């Protein structure tokens, strides 16, 4: 997906209430036209455009994406798969990190601290496809020692994209 929220480019980035309002509005609807966005947050369109550009240049807004319903494109079964690596060498981490995002059905990859090393959000056609994904792509990967699969019943989007006041 991109850089981590605490990357050096954005660490300590100062945003004010207007920036937060812009981020909230774009998180709700990234397709808002600049004039509508400016009106929604109560600033002039030229100021709004400059602020959005600044948020992008500073890496606070990393991009604009379409939110796709996996079930609508033939991936109705979603799971979170925890992955533990055999060893924590740079080579094994790099090997898994470079291949995981491109595996079929992978929606997101999270590098974790704790007992598991990675968490993969996957979407597949059904239980057999999930089994095949794990067997064909994870248990055969030389860096993978163990996996644990949890099915997702429902995904509820959070609204945690806005930094707390005072940041």
From TrEMBL:
CDD domains: HTH_ARSR
Record-annotated HTH asnC-type domain positions: 15-76
SMART domains associated with the record: HTH_ASNC
GO BP terms, alphabetized: response to amino acid
Alphabetized PROSITE patterns for the sequence: HTH_ASNC_2
InterPro entries: ArsR-like_HTH (IPR011991), AsnC-type_HTH_dom (IPR000485), Dimeric_a/b-barrel (IPR011008), Tscrpt_reg_AsnC-like (IPR019888), Tscrpt_reg_AsnC/Lrp_C (IPR019887), WH-like_DNA-bd_sf (IPR036388), WH_DNA-bd_sf (IPR036390)
Record GO terms (molecular function): sequence-specific DNA binding
Entry GO CC: cytosol
Keywords: DNA-binding, Transcription, Transcription regulation
PANTHER family: LEUCINE-RESPONSIVE REGULATORY PROTEIN, POSSIBLE TRANSCRIPTIONAL REGULATORY PROTEIN (PROBABLY LRP_ASNC-FAMILY)
Protein name: Lrp/AsnC family transcriptional regulator
